[in-house]
Amino acid sequence: MDKAKMGTFIKEQRMALGMTQQQLAEQLHITNKAISRWETGNAYPDISLLDDLAAALSVSVEELCRGERIALPSADTNTLLSDVIAEVRQQKKDRAAKWLRILCLSIFSVILLAFLFFTGAFLFIQNEANLDEALFTLALGAFAIGLMLFRDGIPILLLAIALPPLLCRRPRQPAKTIVCILLSVLSVLWLIFGGHFLWFQLF
């Protein structure tokens, strides 16, 4: 199975039907960027979209996977579909590996920042004559950093979790959509009003 050939076939069929990428994307409830990635041969369509994509382009699933028109269904259709499933699974593994790299980089950044903070704290204490004042200053600094993370970090993290499913135009479960909307609204409210509330309570 050729990714570039399949992408070219999708583009040719779409143009033959007089559809734009946006119109095809709306039929499939996805973004036009996904269509562009398919047509340029950078990605395969998700296995769950093959039936709908084939119907939208007025071709069979086998023709879609082969990237060409065929007169009669071949005997190795199951093998072809197995190849498609394997490719899609590999794409999911690649995406998972990408997120794992991002997570590792984030953890490394946090560890590096913590190391720099404690190294700076140690040097600060070493150079201060009054140990109590130095410790109090460091405690205030650590408290300020923790307060910033609590005020801004938590809602930003919740937004990062809730927004991608809402922005994705694939069909979603109603319960999941409601939860994501609630998380997004609460996160925005927390970002707007949470800091003022904490400031009022503390001071």
Question: Would you mind describing this structure in some detail?
Answer:
Helix 2 crosses helix 3 and helix 7 packs antiparallel against helix 8. By secondary structure, the protein is an all-alpha fold. It is built from eight helices and no strands. The protein has two domains: 76 residues, lambda repressor-like DNA-binding domains (434 Repressor (Amino-terminal Domain)), CATH 1.10.260.40; 73 residues. The protein starts with a helix and ends with a helix. The model has no long low-confidence stretch (mean pLDDT 75). It is elongated and about 90 Å long.
User: Which class of secondary structure composition applies to the elements?
Assistant: mainly alpha
**SS strand fraction:** under 5%
CATH homologous superfamily designation of the largest domain:
lambda repressor-like DNA-binding domains
Q: What proportion of the residues is helical, as a percent range?
A: over 70%
Radius of gyration, in angstroms, nearest whole number: 26 Å
GO molecular function, one term: DNA binding
Organism: Waltera acetigignens
Keywords: DNA-binding, Membrane, Transmembrane, Transmembrane helix
Transmembrane segments: 99-125, 137-166, 178-200
